[in-house]
Specification:
Shape: elongated
Number of helices: 37
Largest sheet: 11 strands, mixed
Strand content: 15-25%
Radius of gyration: 36 Å
Structural class: alpha+beta
Strand order of the largest sheet: 21-41-40-39-22-34-38-37-35-36-42
Length: 1215
């Protein structure tokens, strides 16, 4: 069931029945990690039996099959192989959930004319070439054989056709899965192009012929992201047949039979209003989403031998070649740019407001991947601001994905089909409702017995017994629970934080760890140039604060040209760092669409020198520089480059800019200064961002045509080191305060950045993630090489070799550390993280619980980190700007994107405020919402159980509550307080305590049972007190309820229970520590006071309400005061149970977890890390523990073989 074992949906080994799948339903369906597929086909006998069952049971099974469609499929169809299936049952399970979700889909067919398959059989490289594109000849992709006439003998009759062949497919969550005959399995159409190389993409520049396009459209389907918008009659049917409203309809019918007309009418009106509002809201949301994703434009495509053709974007298929207009426009599909450059706004997908420059995809045998070639890929839904052609008349892009298989389609699918939330509270709430149903069954049995004993007619017994079910199981529970999150969502929106998944607000209350991006999140977006460190020979010169003062030479040329800036509406746009760098040189960007007069050759852009200034004698004069080609920045490569020429230059030069460590590794060793590591550490330790520059003369002609044939690898090897660009990236003013506040509340804070490790460490110390007196240890890992296993090194930051990874045990051994497991942090790079993932999987969890700084992390590594932390049962938050952390934001339990957009599909939360102040706000609202949800659930459960006790007491004496009494309890009292109690604001400050995540826990269940015992005791006490009074007159048991109203028993039970509904609402609404005090919720407090005053008046002076409510007047004033005293005792007891007993009944939360998960962020936590582990690793350097024991120096080295050695174990593996 591994998600990576196969790209097929189906198993070629099995022949029929339920088939197991080795992958999720698709790469875009990341929520499901396990999928099972079952095939079913029609069976006449089963169909007859199905209709017979439906007819005999008066259509009731149809309602059940609507709620559980798979049951109906299994009843009327027989299991069969996928090759014969007409209907499929798809079972999916989330990676963190144990329950399966079931879906049913119909297998569809579409006829294809035979002539459309007449294509060249072989490509130049010998691979099969067909209508689906050139794909490698692997066992599962050698062909997508369609059902020909001779193969259709075993298929259903609908597939038979002598002239045509058909494509079998099904649609699931918008995506299409096509049947692969050779493997007897379904394959998502987005994977049909898997394995295409960059050369394959470029070979499609001529476009598709019309027959090819027709064939591909049959297989891939139309290029639309279809959002179903149901009509109002359909919505009405869906709402009315919802199980919740089905139960309401059953209850209303029961109440009408029991002559509770007023109550039934009110519930009917409320339900009708609720259905109408729900219909309007659902219709509006669907229409809004449809309008947001609707995109139908006319585009120009290439046709081989036919020139160009204008077509509707819905007809685009993978392989089409688009001609992009100079003014740009919205992209209707995913496409690889093969000619020209585009400036693109991707804010709708990533939240990043800075336009991105896209360049042409380089040719070569490397497999094309949209993620690794992001800088060459135009994504669906993004806005092309401008397109410029170079080396040809047009800007061309080859379509790679369409419809729901595009990046935008995947995000829309995640909105329509969000990942299931694996939260104990929701699971336990369902179990608790099931327990209430069991209690209702027991109550029903008791009521039948007691009513039969009282000689009540059989029809009356049935009605009363069923009525008890409507009392115990609260039908308003789902609506009441929804109110809690809606209030929290509206409060967040008022603070500029928008949420598209309200259910995730409660998860914010369980956050134990928050990951932060660095640049633009913890630090300012903008960078200030501090200066340039040039070279002289093999030694660094002092810092030059003004780069514009540098003499003309390779370093100045690199600073002026090594960027991806562009002009957009007379404004330079691009990466903020590039803008600052070019600004510091004084050079001016000019973009030339034709040949530059000074250079005599076409260029991408020209950098003009600043106005002439007196130059130092012997320096070269400043001349314009032409950019012939660009190698875009890549997060995985950590660098970018340009190829530059200038007047008089015989050959161009390549200039590279990127990570200092990586650029230095690409340079010839004799050009890298000996003090490189020391100089780099001196700047990064001060918190500066450092970028290295290098150059290389190229032995090619200074023309764009020659540069286009140049591979990136060739241009970026044997470089000459030029110097360092030093930039300052200041912390945002709010960062330190927020980080310290989170740490005080025992919430781990982790930095995940693509920046240098030492810079990240300095920022972590500067913002308080690592306190001044806390130790920070660097982990370095190396991959296995030359027969040596993978190894790890643990170095304190005090060691000068720690950050740069030099392996010198003699130097490292002199730096010793006292073991301090509770205040030690780990820092590691993306490379080390990769080694741990691959070679030290058992050690990885131990590292993750102490790691605070992750540097040089690629975007996919950020996502992997979040997933690994979730496997440790952390509830993980992620805060970033959405630029290169989209995957991590989506994978996190609570992802918060800092964006100016009102809402983003990148993450559940989008904050318009530019700082991390939004994180404590989300946590406070999450804790408030979760605590309120617990309180609401308890209140609704206690309300039902309170009424359950009242009804059982009255049933015992052959009476019941009256019609208007039920109405007063359910609508006037309960509904009012349930709606208003959720309005309480969150606490003003975060505390260390967290709301419980499990409803079925000792504190919750114990207080619930004790409150229930108190409620029953008070009602029974009131009943026995009134029976013992000398003036008491028993009711006439020969007259059935409600005709025997009013009576004393009913009056006392109703009066006391009415007080109890208010008392319980106030008791479960205590404020601290997650909410503000009860008195701050003024509407709720006013409602409690007013309703309480009315109830007191009903006892002391019944007045006009006595008759309609069916109450009997009690003349004894002392007894009235006694009832009020009993209610007061109930009030005191209820508050004592909530405030006093619950803390004693609950233990320390989370002790059954790993005992490691809080890590160093909570120094008081005794389980931060096993002291034995750190004592073994960081023992002062005095002696070795033995020939097989760990070394006792500050630098501890461990390799793969030592982990498996019986006498030598990594101390971090010891718990």
């Amino acid at each position: 069931m591994s998600a990576d074992s196969s790209p097929l949906v189906g198993s070629p080994a099995a022949s029929y029945g339920t088939l197991m799948i080795g992958t999720s339903i698709g790469p875009l369906s990341s929520s499901a990690s396990s999928v099972r597929l079952s095939g079913y086909c029609g069976s006449p006998w089963r169909a007859i039996g199905y209709h017979a069952v439906v007819w005999v049971l008066a259509g009731i099974p149809l309602l059940l099959f609507r709620w559980k469609p798979s049951w109906g499929v299994r009843l009327r169809s027989r299991p069969c192989s996928l090759a014969h299936a007409e209907t499929l049952v798809i079972e999916t399970r989330d990676k963190e959930d144990s329950s399966w979700q079931l879906f049913t889909v119909q297998v569809q067919t579409e006829a294809v004319v035979e002539g459309s398959l007449e294509l060249p059989l072989q490509a130049e490289d010998g691979r099969s070439k067909m209508a689906l594109g050139a794909v490698p000849e692997t066992p599962w992709k050698d062909t997508a054989r369609l059902h020909r006439r001779e193969e259709a003998g075993r298929l259903p009759l609908a597939f038979l056709s002598p002239q045509k062949q058909v494509v079998r497919y099904y649609l699931f969550q918008g995506r299409r899965y096509v049947w692969i005959e050779t493997q007897q399995a379904f394959l998502q159409v987005s994977l049909l192009g898997h394995g295409h190389t960059c050369d394959d993409i470029h070979s499609s520049r001529s476009g598709l012929s019309l027959p090819d396009q027709t064939m591909r459209k049959t297989i891939f389907g139309p290029n639309v992201i279809s959002i179903p918008v149901k009509s109002y009659p359909q919505l009405l049917v869906d709402e009315v047949l919802n199980p919740y409203y089905g139960f309401q309809a059953f209850s209303i019918g029961l109440w009408l039979a029991d002559h509770y007309y007023w109550y039934a009418l009110c519930i009917f009106l409320i339900s009708a209003i609720s259905i109408c509002l729900s219909m309007l809201k659902t219709r509006k949301q669907s229409q809004t989403l449809k309008d947001m994703v609707k995109l139908s434009v006319r585009v120009r495509v290439c046709r081989p031998g036919e020139g160009e053709e204008w077509v509707d974007s819905s007809k685009l298929v993978p392989g089409d070649c688009l001609v992009l207009p100079p003014e740009g426009g919205l992209m209707p599909c995913d496409a690889a740019l093969v000619a020209g450059e585009c400036m693109v706004n991707e804010s709708c997908l990533t939240g990043e407001s800075v336009p991105v420059l896209k360049t042409a995809l380089p040719e070569g045998p490397r497999p094309y991947c949209p993620e690794s070639h992001r800088r060459h890929t135009l994504f669906c839904g993004t806005l092309v601001l401008q397109a410029r052609a170079y080396g040809g008349p047009h800007v061309l892009a080859v379509v790679t994905q369409t419809g729901f298989c595009t990046a935008k389609g995947g995000l829309v699918s995640s909105i329509l089909h969000p990942r299931p939330i694996n939260f104990k509270f929701y699971k336990h709430s369902m179990k608790f409702v099931a327990a209430l149903s069991v209690l209702a069954l027991l109550g029903t049995i008791y009521s039948i017995f007691i009513l039969h004993h009282n000689r009540v007619p059989v029809n009356e017994i049935v009605i009363r017994a069923l009525d008890l079910v409507t009392v115990v199981v609260p039908p308003a529970l789902p609506a009441a629970m929804t109110v809690c999150t809606l209030y929290a969502q509206s409060r967040l929106q008022a603070q500029g934080i928008f949420c598209i998944h309200p259910l995730r607000i409660n998860l914010g209350g369980k956050l134990r760890l928050v990951c932060f991006d660095k640049t633009g999140t913890l630090t300012e977006n903008g960078l200030d140039v501090m200066g340039v460190v040039p070279l002289k020979g093999q030694a660094f010169l002092p810092l030059v604060p003004e780069p514009r003062c540098l003499p003309m030479g390779p370093l100045l040329r690199a600073l002026a040209t090594c960027h991806a800036l562009s002009w957009l509406q007379d404004t330079p746009v691009g990466d903020p760092m590039d803008l600052k760098m070019v600004e510091s040189t004084g050079w001016v960007l000019e973009e030339e669409p034709a040949a530059d007069a000074a250079l005599g050759t076409p260029v991408l852009a020209v950098m003009r020198p600043p106005p002439w200034e007196p130059q130092t004698q012997g320096t070269e004069p400043h001349v314009p520089l032409g950019v012939l080609g660009r190698f875009p920045f890549s997060s995985s490569l950590q660098r970018m480059g340009v190829v530059v020429a200038w007047p008089g230059a015989a050959q161009p030069e390549a200039y590279i800019k990127g990570s200092p460590e990586l650029v230095a590794s690409l340079c010839s060793p004799d050009t890298v200064p000996a003090d490189f590591s020391k100089t780099l550490q001196s700047y990064t330790a001060a918190g500066y961002r450092v970028v290295a520059l290098a150059c290389k003369p190229l032995s090619i002609a200074p023309s764009m045509e020659a540069v286009q044939q140049l591979s990136r690898d060739t241009a970026e090897q044997d470089l000459s080191f030029l110097g360092l660009l030093v930039m300052r990236n200041l912390l945002k003013p709010q960062t330190t305060r927020v980080i310290q506040a989170l740490r005080r509340t025992c919430i781990r804070t982790v930095m995940v950045t693509g920046d240098n490790l030492q810079t990240a460490v300095t920022v972590a110390r500067g913002c308080g993630m690592v306190a001044p007196r806390e130790r920070l240890v660097i982990i370095h890992a190396t991959y296995p090489e030359q027969g040596r296993p993978a190894s790890l090194e643990f170095l304190p930051t005090e060691c000068p070799t720690a950050v740069n990874g030099a392996k010198d045990p003699d130097k490292a051994a002199s730096y010793t550390m006292e073991p301090d497991p509770q205040s030690s942090h780990l820092a590691l790079s993306g490379s080390t993280f990769g080694v741990l993932m691959k070679h030290f999987p058992k050690l990885l969890p131990k590292v993750l619980v102490q790691a605070t700084v992750f540097a040089r992390m690629a975007p996919e590594q950020k996502t992997e980190l979040v997933c690994e932390l979730q496997r440790l049962q952390y509830c993980v938050g992620m805060c970033g700007d959405g630029a290169n952390d989209c995957g991590a934001l989506k994978a996190a339990d609570v992802g918060i994107s800092l964006s100016q957009a009102e809402a983003s599909v990148v993450s559940p939360f989008t904050s318009s405020m530019p700082s991390i102040e939004c994180v404590p706000m989300v946590i406070r609202e999450g804790r408030c919402s979760l605590d309120t949800s617990f309180s609401m659930f308890k209140y609704m459960a206690l309300y039902s159980l309170t009424q359950f006790v009242s009804v059982l007491i009255l049933y015992t004496i052959n009476t019941n509550l009256g019609d208007l009494q039920f109405l007063a309890i359910d609508l006037v009292i309960t509904t009012t307080v349930a709606v208003l109690m959720s309005r309480t604001q969150p606490a003003l400050a975060l505390g260390r305590a967290r709301p419980p995540g499990a409803l079925l826990s000792v504190p919750v269940l114990s207080t619930l049972l004790l409150q229930m015992a108190l409620v029953a005791g008070v009602q029974l006490g009131g009943y026995f007190l009134v029976v013992a009074q000398p003036w008491f007159v028993p009711l006439n048991k020969t007259v059935p309820a409600p005709d025997n109203l009013p009576n004393y028993e009913n009056t006392v039970v109703f009066s006391l229970s009415s007080f109890q509904y208010l008392i319980l609402a106030a008791a479960v609404s205590k404020g601290a520590p997650f909410r503000q005090p009860l008195y701050t919720n003024v509407p709720f407090l006013v409602a409690l006071v007013l309703l309480g005053s009315v109830l007191v008046g009903l006892i002391l002076v019944p007045g006009l309400l006595q008759g309609p409510l069916g109450l009997r007047n009690i003349a004894d004033t002392c007894f009235k005061l006694l009832l009020l005293g009993l209610a007061a005792c109930n009030f005191v007891g209820a508050f004592m149970l909530e405030v006093g007993c619950r803390p004693r009944l609950g233990g320390k939360e989370g002790q059954r977890d790993l005992g490691l998960r809080l890590g160093p962020s909570c120094p008081s936590t005794p389980h931060s890390l096993c002291r034995v582990c750190w004592t073994s690793v960081f023992q002062p350097a005095c002696s070795s523990s033995g020939p097989n024991g760990p070394p006792r120096s500050a630098s501890s080295s461990w390799n793969r073989s030592s982990l498996s050695s019986p006498g030598r174990r990594c101390p971090l593996l010891v718990l």
